[in-house]
Design brief:
The protein is of the alpha/beta class and about 350 residues long. It has helices at about 5-10, 50-60, 75-85, 130-135, 165-175, 190-195, 210-215, 230-240, 285-295, 300-315, 330-345; strands at about 15, 20-25, 40-45, 65-75, 90-100, 105-110, 115-120, 140-150, 155-160, 160-165, 180-185, 205-210, 220-225, 225, 245-250, 255-260, 265-270. The chain has a single domain (about 15-335), classed as UDP-N-acetylmuramoyl-L-alanine:D-glutamate ligase (3-Layer(aba) Sandwich). The structure holds adenosine-5'-diphosphate and magnesium ion.
Length: about 350
């Protein structure tokens, strides 16, 4: 079998990285320190890139093989994540249960005004390191790792590659995967650049938002809240020149921009949803990633790929949590066709 055939035989998406549970607690009013607040309503939901991206992909009902990889605790939250993923037909053979607790966030929501406060426990995700990633072997076509900058063991300096994460991606590419990365937005530009720039030459796909792209490139993409749309294409191009092998995608509420090694550049406006109509933005970036990964997997033209990403993000905004807004590929295609007709008319 030659390399071409080998890569064509590979199918599906493996997601590795952040897995967590959000414990949402609704209270009437934020208490004074040392006082009691009564919880009026509680809800648990899977979160983090791995559940969000894979569950959005599963809801497409495309039949693409999907698998999760990462660490959970030997506890109820770990069981909750596994059950949620398995119920959607996602392969959980690469979810390992460890002695650390499952990573989780207590989300305290004040009913009046809806303001949310987060208490995060790093937990099992902290243990995800290069040695563990060595065991990732499968015949999926794409491996998507996220959220780098929230996985501390992958940030350590490494003599040959600069940073451990770069070695991990180099090894994954050597095993035949197309590699993909998404980040979490952090307010530490020096750390972000130090960790992410050495990784770029070992990525096939980089899918990030405008704030992350601004941090990595130093180009002003938002000035005082205003998007500098004219610079988005240049930022994608700069990241491609910094080493990304195939495609760089940058997304924001206004739209998505992409640049590819084959010389394609494109920009597609978002399916804008008025902020008053948004039930919640939790997981919208992951939903966007899911749509883009599907298009990349299928070898779609870039514009069509970005449109599916935008549509997945738009549908995500319909629900307060990361997953209930997700739609099937048929529903998304119908929506995109309807929007195209509306634009022409
Ligand atoms: N009002 C909106 N209309 C349409 N799409 C939106 C809107 N707001 C956000 N989005 C989509 O959701 C994405 C949010 O992604 P991101 O900033 O990475 O958030 P996170 O990763 O924290 O979920 C945007 O880039 C865009 O694709
Ligand atoms: Mg994001």
């Amino acid at each position: 079998m030659n390399r071409q055939q080998g890569s064509e035989a590979r199918r599906g998406i493996l997601a590795v990285g952040t897995l967590l549970v959000d414990h949402v607690q609704v209270i009437d009013e934020w208490p004074e320190q040392g006082r009691l607040a009564t919880i009026r309503h509680s809800e648990d939901a899977t979160g983090g890139a791995v559940p969000n991206v894979l569950r959005t992909l599963a809801r497409l009902q495309s039949g693409l093989p999907l698998a999760a990889a990462g660490l959970v605790g030997r506890d109820g939250d770990g069981a909750l994540i596994r059950a949620a993923l398995e119920s959607e037909g996602i392969d959980c053979a690469r979810l390992e249960a460890v002695s650390e607790p499952t990573s989780m966030t207590q989300v305290i929501t004040v009913r009046r005004g809806g303001q949310r406060t987060f208490f995060h426990q790093e937990g099992a995700n902290r243990m995800l390191d290069a040695a563990w990633c060595e065991h990732l072997v499968s015949d999926h076509k794409i491996v998507h790792l996220a959220y780098l900058l929230l996985l501390p063991a992958l940030e350590a300096p490494e003599p040959e590659f600069g940073v451990v994460a770069a070695r991990v991606f180099a090894r994954l590419q050597a095993r035949g995967y197309h590699t993909s990365l998404d980040l979490v937005s952090v307010d530490e530009p020096a750390r972000a650049r130090q960790v992410v720039l050495p990784v770029l030459p070992f990525l096939d796909y980089l899918i990030i938002n405008e704030l992350e792209a601004q941090t990595l490139t130093g180009l002003p993409l938002r000035i005082g809240g205003a998007l500098q749309a004219g610079a988005m294409g240049a930022a994608a191009q700069q990241l491609l020149e910094a080493g990304v092998r195939q495609v760089v995608v940058i997304h924001c509420p206004q739209g998505a921009w992409a640049a590819s090694r084959r010389g394609e550049c494109c920009q597609v406006p978002s399916y804008w949803l008025d902020p008053a109509m948004i039930a919640g933005t939790v997981g919208a970036g992951d939903a966007f990633c899911a749509g883009v990964l599907y298009g990349l997997h299928e070898g779609w033209p870039l514009a069509k790929t970005l449109r599916l990403g935008n549509a997945c993000a738009r549908f995500n905004l319909r629900s307060a949590n990361a997953i209930d807004g997700a739609a099937t590929l048929a529903e998304l295609h119908a929506f995109m066709a309807e929007q195209a007709v509306a634009e022409q008319g």
